[in-house]
User: Fold this.
Amino acid sequence: MLWSDVDEENTPALWSLAEDGSDAALSVRTTRRLTCPTDGWLTVSAGQRARLRTGTARCPTAPVTSGAGGGAVAPGWPAIKKDNAATGYHAKVGLLGDAVRASGGCTLAVGPGAVFGLADGNGRVDRYAASPGEVGADDWAACPVAAVSVDDVFRASVDAGVDADGEQIEPGAAERDAAAAAADRRVGQVLANVPDGTTVLLAGLADASADPHLHVAIAKGGAFDSPGYLTSTATRQQGLVTLTDLTATALEVLGAEQSDDAVGSAWTAEASEDPVADRVEALDDDDVAAQGISAVQTSFYWVLFAAQLVAYGAAALALRRTGRDRRSRSRILGGTRVIALFGGAIPAATFLTGLLPWWRASNPTVMLVVTVLGFGALLTGLALAGPWRRSVFLPGLVITAVTALVLALDVMTGSNLQLNTLMGYTALVAGRFYGFGNQAFALFAVAAILTAAWLTEFPLRRERKAVAVGIVAVIGVAAVAVDGLPAWGSDFGGVLAMVPAFAMLGMLVTGRRVSPVKLGLFCVAGARWCWASRTGTRRAPIRRIWGVSGRTSWRARRGAWWSASSTR
Assistant:
């Protein structure tokens, strides 16, 4: 279920749940670009990205076989368990079910997919029902945790079929609305029958279209007793959580012991006075922005590279044809300089686009391009407008300094400009949600080093090497702190690259020779700083983040329930 599917008239149960609970956009990325329902449920089971190896983006939820005592067994479980243990994520499917069993509780799965989410290490759930209508009031209260699969919207997508090229056909608007209404009725049926005081966790677990999306996440009851937004330490973003967080949240609600093999963090509620309509619109905006970036991100790099290649190639050809005509050569070089500065300003411009809601335009792609070009022109104008415009290197220094400053301030204030930008990251890929990604780090590191190098020009002209080295040291320490500290850039690997680079720059400024031995010592220094930062700053809060300490007993907590709607 997407937030665009939720409205007061067609989905009243979901609307009411969102109105009274805490809401977020949910990133469901698992091991593939598209997440099928079984992948989503297995990820919930493991608290780590998991998969059904034979699954596809349109895979139906596999059936289950009934076991003794009203339970059920997930088919093919041994093979699923072995396959996921061998992936790079080393997912331990059955982790959630085993944790519930170890705490003395039983599990209730409603719908075939839910069996894969709550199955223990042997692939079994204690109680099973094919649909919510088969579950009585006593059955809801029998087990402290229940999982319910609501897949009407996903089924509508499956029924729409594929075209001649095997591409998914999107259901029509009427079919989509009808499926969302059917899913809403199932959710309402469950909400009307679960015991009072139940904590409800609702999540759209899977994609059901040709493109990945952010989905609905709602929590109500218990710690989520006031309207607002959800967040987690896994994302550090208000209104954004991940699928792996769902496992940690269920364990937290139930008071079960958290596992080191579950990588997510428990959802937390942030109270807000925003009306539900505004929250729904804002969370749908997150998905629209992610779609807009995803549609043009690859093309952006090709266009940026090709445009500069053509411009510089044309300039080189024009210079050859002008011969020794100084006036013509001056014009060509002047124009090339402007193009080079504009190209250098584009990376910072891509992040500054996050200051404007370009995705709300009728044509988001066009507005995104216009916004990037506008900020690029603004920065280029700044570089050429001051008294420094006649300098050979100062306009470039303005561009690099602004780039480093923009990126530094962003990660120091929550990484808001990193998310859903052309050179940042998106929640659809779910590789990172805060701090520096690979591309942003590369930009920041190069911009910081060039800024430091060009600033040393002034003291070096006066033969003040000590001042020049001081400039490199100050900028280097600041850049390494911004990049490496967990509260900011959280990019420990980047420290290993930046420390030697700034050290080498400092040696070059003083005129000293850079030897392999000295370079090795600088690399060791960077590694020691990185290790000290990880052990002294980052590892200490892990238990507090996961909420392992200060936990009440299992039986002091009420039961938890979540509904998974496997939708587009």
